[in-house]
Amino acid sequence: MAISSNTLFHFTKTKENLLGILQDTFHPRYCLEQFGVGDTATEAAIPMVSFCDIPLSQINKHLTVYGKYGLGLSKKWAHKSSLNPVLYLRKKSALSHHIESILNNLLEEPLRSYEVASEIAGVILDVLRHVKPYQGTLYRDSGSTKKIKFYDEREWRYVPKIEKSGFKFYLKKDDFLDIEKRNSANDRLFDARLTFEPSDINYIILDNEAEILPMVSELRQIKSKYDYDTIDILITRILTADRILNDF
Q1: pLDDT in tens, 199-235
Q2: CA–CA dist 163, 97 (Å, integer)
Q3: What is the pTM (predicted TM-score) of this model?
Q4: Helix (H, G, I), strand (E, B), or coil: what is residue 224?
Q5: Maximum CA pair distance of the chain?
Q6: Interior CA angle at 217 toward 214 and 226, to 5°?
Q7: Which of helix, strand or coil describes residue 87?
Q8: What is the β-pairing status of strands 7-12 and 69-74?
């Protein structure tokens, strides 16, 4: 039995969110995360799009946590788009302490110029934006939390390039919890979208079979991207969460 998939899945809670992705591709959003190294942990919101590398036969639990609407895109697309698995760190592990030591030494070294300091700070920040605790607290936009073993999710992550301008590399927790500030920050991520073509889609996942025909009708309205031949192909790639939960 395969322990990873040839497809990366992104799940969401509503059909409207899925339609938005199919029409406008992926729009990164700030997600509140725990991250840190050594004995130091902090909370901040990172702009990202997250995927899981889990075979359909093992994805039941993920569906119940993240939603029953999803898009599965090929690993070939993921490699082309420079996605990468996150680095899972167990608190107080040897690796965690080694990374903490490296970062502290870099920050304490006398620097020759502001430009060098900015470059090193950028590299450190980008590394931390791809770090996730082995287990910890899952935060939802609703304000709810859930203890979870993140390692089971086999997450791959897209984080906008640090050179991009016009958005913050992270939000402080208080700013993320302020809905107005969070929405404003998310709006500024529009130009950092993660794009794909219809040919990159391996699966479209809906909640139940009653939603298949309405989804086909919605896709036909996006004529600039989904012509009739494309939709005929995509119909063969539709699965439902009900079927996955019952048959896989």
Answers
A1: 999 999 999 999 999 999 998 888 778 888 998 999 9
A2: 28
A3: 0.88
A4: coil
A5: 64
A6: 135
A7: strand
A8: antiparallel
